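Fold this: TetR/AcrR family transcriptional regulator
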Amino acid sequence: MPKRVDHAERRAEIDAIVWAIIAEEGIAAVTLRSIAARGGISMGRVQHYFPTREAIIAHALTSFLALAEQAHPIPDDRNEALLVLLTNALPHDGSQPLGAKVWYAYLAESITDPQIAEIVGAALRGSEDLATELLDGDRTRARFLLAAADGFAYRALAGLMTPEAAEAAIRELVEAHP
């Protein structure tokens, strides 16, 4: 009987390898060869699922965003929902520094890669729309809070402040201007 292969699982394994490479070495280090070597798999397997480097990088980003959404469900309470939205990029626990590094690498890549820019832009617009909705239509305030949260997340990732201090600062901003 032929062996059954879970193609979604294989793609997810490749995504995880890509994220690890990005977190440690940056997007420039992602190649078919580096993925195969890192995962102990053949280049043929990588190419079977993703014919190009660009396809791999875009798929890994789309999967990353879907997993981030699952990992940070939006609560019913409006203030808590806003805090979840604003703090989900903070590098809190063992997996989040990797997530924050991957996200910021994709943000940087979006400056020069139109395909990545489209995916990142859609995610950022979605966050802005949700924040605007949670703030009763105040798009200016939503943009302000999102920009501040991005800055705090970057500072925490760069080691300029702790994730806890960044979260406290974001919470203070939200509570100071209800």
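DSSP finds nine helices and no strands in the chain. The first helix runs from residue 7 to 25.
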